[in-house]
Amino acid sequence: MNKKSLILTAATLCLMLTTPAMAESTLTVEDIVNIFQKQKTRGLVLAPASTDDGATDADNFVSLPKEEQVNLNIEFDFDSSVLRPDQDDKLALLCAAMKAVNAKGFKIVGHTDASGTPIYNMNLSKLRAQEVKRHLVDNCGIPDEKLRAEGVGEGYLFDESDPDANINRRVEFQVAG
Asked: Per residue in 83-114, pLDDT tens?
């Protein structure tokens, strides 16, 4: 077993990640890397946070097919954007996958359910994405310039039939380049 395989295997802690392709199943680092590789073939780019015409993160967001999404079920306390310590293992798994993918960058996209006002949800989703980015920079060593945090609020519900469902409160990761 080579060093890279050993590191990837060691990082695979059988943690729960929620992705459309494997909802409520255990993913490995290799599974996440494979999803990121599919995304790379789409040629995503890191769009600017806003444009001269006032476009927002949601305006620049590219919604991927569900089977190509990596949605990490990062849990936050109600009305909070502070990462809880019990989420560190999930983020360590993601960190290993990000380091294993040769990518120019990643988007960290915060989503909310529909229970708040649209403006509140937009702000909360962005704050949560920024907190995940901070964690990946400070604790994982991913360079700040490779990560882009954006929030899209309730604009892209995962479960449209239940707008307040827990699965809609998520952080999605997209590879760029």
From this structure: 989 888 889 989 999 999 888 899 998 988 99
5 DSSP 8-state letter: H
User: CA 4, CA 36: separation in Å to the nearest integer?
Assistant: 17
Q: Give 17's strand partners.
A: 25
Domain coverage including residue 106: 3-176
Strand order in the sheet with 70-72: 70-72, 171-176, 105-110, 147-151
Residues whose CB falls within 8 Å of the CB of residue 148, separated by 6 or more in sequence, listed in order:
46, 49, 105, 106, 107, 108, 133, 176
Q: Output the pTM of the full model.
A: 0.69
Yes or no: say if 39 and 64 are a contact pair by the CB < 8 Å rule: yes
Backbone angles phi, psi at 111, to 5 degrees: -125, 155
DSSP state of 137: I
CATH code of 73's domain: 3.30.1330.60
